Amino acid sequence: MVRIEYVEAASSDEVLAALSQWGPDARLIAGGTDVLMDIRRGKYTPPVLIGITEIPELQGIRPTEGGLWIGAVTTHHAVTMSPLVLERYPVLASASGKVGSHQIRNVATIGGNICNAVPCADTAPALLALDAQAHVLGPEGKRVLPLDGFFAGPGRSVLARNELLLGFVLPDRLAGAGGSYHKHSWREALDIQMCGAAVVLTADPGDCRCLEARIALGTAGPVPRRADAAEAALKGAVVNEELASELGRIAAAEARPRTSARATEEYRREMIEVLVKRAILDALAHIKGARS
Amino acid sequence: MSNAYQVVGKRAPLVDSIDKVVGSARFGADIKLPGMLEGKILRSPHPHARIRYVDTAAAEALPGVLGVITAADTPMVRYGTIIPDQTILATDKVRYIGDEVAAVAAVDLETAEAALRLIKVDYELLPPVLDMEAAMRDDSLRVHNDVPNNIADHIHFERGDPDGGRRDAYACFTRRFTTPAVHQCYLEPNSCVATWSENGSLTLWAPNQGPFAARLVLARALVMPEDKIRFIQTFTGGAFGGKTWQQVWPITAVLARKAGRPVRIVLTRQEEFEATLPRVPMIIDLSMGVYRDGRLAFKETRIMSGNGAYSISAPAVHYVAATRYDSLYRLGNIRCTADLVYTNTVPTGMFRGFGNPQMHFAGESMMDMLAEAVGIDPVEIRRRNAALPGDTSAHGWYLGSCAVQETIEKAAEATDLVNRRRGGRPLADGKTFWGIGMASCIHVAGNRTIYKPYDGSNARVQVSGDGSVVVYSGEADLGQGCRTVFAQIAAEVLGVPMDAVTVAAADTDFSPFAIGTVASRVTTLGGLAVDLAAKDARDKILAAAAENWGVPAQALDMENGSVISRSHPERRLSFPVAAEIASDALGGKPVIGVGEYRTEGVVLPDPQTKYGNIAIAYSFGTQVAEVLVDTETGRVRVLRFVAAHDVGRAINPLGVEGQIEGGIAQGIGYALLEEIKMDRGRVLNPDFLDYRIPTSVDIPPIESILVEPDDPNGPFGAKSVGETAVVPTVAAVANAIYDAIGVRLTDLPMTPDRILAALREKRAGSQPSSSGA
Domain B456-598 carries which CATH code? Predict the structure, then answer.
């Protein structure tokens, strides 16, 4: 019979101590909606699970220097319901609200969604499009790294085995920017994404000329990624339906989706085109709505 | 419908719903016996392989393991529901990924799982037979060595003059329709608990659809007398056809005998998807034609049905697909050729609708194509062809009651279908299309072919001296609500409130013989038996009261739960008092009413021509779907369903509506989402993450319209609805999609990528729009 120890950490220092004590096979657990499934499927059998949800440092949504702090163990439900997130970064609330089911959103955390590093993580495109900074603690101290570059491959992040994700900071610069997340899946609820697209943009409210733009894609390659070429084409351009369609095509061309039992590469690429177009138009409508 | 009844026809919450809601109902996996072990099954990882040897020594040596079985521990006889092609565990070959090879009983699940990993099986791999068309060729490898061309069953029949019909048709079409294997997805997985007594008798607890039918096959598999087996039906958390036969039953039995202890096996969801009995997949080549006036000229069908590795009930499913649809309309010219084909894939079986949804998808899609070809609407073509009460169909089916016309009209009226059809015009945004579609259906209430010796049902109604009533029936409640219907019928006949009636669980030691819950037969046939038994009990009570009063029995009657004198209605006895008198007259024993209902006017169809009236009643329905199609993504949203069903008299309208809603939900999944995906015999999506059934937000509002002609044969005029509800759903969705975007989808499920591909073909002008005779 498989026995797995469980350690409930009270502080981030305790986490680091436990990680150094138990070695590289130890696993952190927050909501557990991925970790427990992986263990059950025999993907790995850690000697210990280190619980991190009770650590105050990893909790909460609050204004911080330069932006909004979202603790790693914040549940999707909390993100979805946060007045601060809804007001400043509604695209993230929308993305968190599309994860799994009510039951899953009540326990699964935003940090877990990112550290699990699967290409279909719903919050990844939104956080990428919001230029989120990941705050990480390791034996050498704290480091801050942009989320763009955080994913190393399917199921892998750049975090070392002895590091802990504390949370994210979303920049004030993009608070209130136009934003939209579109998820394509097979049914209306309780589903993973076939692909997803998040757009965040600021534009001149007068002529709708784009000032700053971020387009990020889910399940469009081995890791969630920005659509660089589409972003470049968007920046400085006047945003309209025609441009949105063109950017959809550019994003689809630069995406690297693959064929799996769930969907073909071709169909995913077609959907990326549609989702990017729709997300841009929604973001534009958001800006126009804020102006009027 | 107004009626003179007190209980029948009233909306009755299911009598066992509270037990289920509060968690006191005991389902299969809840059964625990002292000393019980946990069992696990070792399954083949190969679709087709010869077994050289199985070495269980290491597994047997593992501490905590009390029994390991292989084929050598079983009688090794071949058995089957219809075709004897199965053994309890694989003997010479494994024939699909999931085929049972060995099993282990241990003190806990982890030990049993560890023991499975210690069993060594030496396989000689054989090329798998996977494609139906290739499997039927003379040079194909055989799944079963004694079955040439891998054809488990072949059907061919003709009625009238199909060639003449084709010649004289004004328009006709030929299309290939394909339907995948889909799973019943009952929430409760299959399970079994088995224990043996010292005298060699076996007791099993399992969720199932008919303990007598299960026992019959078990006795053959275990080579033991039927009456040495007691099969107890536990609360059953859904079945939909999937719990009529399960290999886990004989495996648990043999394992318990070997271990000398009670054993429980509960299948995992993965085992459910990989190794139980999903819906028979079909390839249907259908030609149909109409005369200028919209009457059907002919139907010609070529069906290939996927049997999988073993037959179970697929031969019967395949026969239903070949025949049943034809009696929906006044259709005389028919030719059908159908083959049931073995492949090295999961054995298929019965699933709500039993081959009928497959054929209705093809036929009802075709009806809309034919309507368009002659320039009439979908309502009109169905109305012109629909069967009428009193008809004898081309297959000799006598339709004693038949309100399909009324269901067509009511469904059309409720949705204003004729005026709201879009004919492929987009909504204002240019990319979203709305559409509406209709499909009708026929189904049975009972089927003479289910059990060769006999058709009917039996019941006992026991009235104790205190006036409490127990109904005994061997027919199984799977959640569909037959306990409630039986309680209503008994309460109505005896004039007692429903809560005075208990319906006992089905148990082969105590219940009267029953064929089981298949073929939408239980309300009708089981209900007739309960009706007879309750009347028998009532007559016995009346006779005792008459003797007590010194009057002839004919002078008394039962009214509102009291025995009254016909001539002096003020003279009355309350039911409990009358029951006490009757019981006292028997020396304190309860009054036992016996009901033995045997069908009349139904026959086993001719084995070659398939001609003959198979059911005492037939149910009908028409459903209308409204959909929204996003032509950029290909996603279809179902917005609304209206379902008019001819169910005969609804004994429990609440239950009927529940059946309709559930059937439509299942049909929407079949239409748009569900498919057991396979690659070289391996199921690619054996879990609810990648096998998607609709969630509550995928299901639209459903409006049920009950059309209630009194059937001359059914109890209180009742017919059936359980399976009927899913039969037309897929076709209604397909027809609504066609109305929305002008493309005809012929492959299920109608997924977004298929819809986009069909739209592309249409734009390229390659979608066939019509064809000559």
Answer: 3.30.365.10
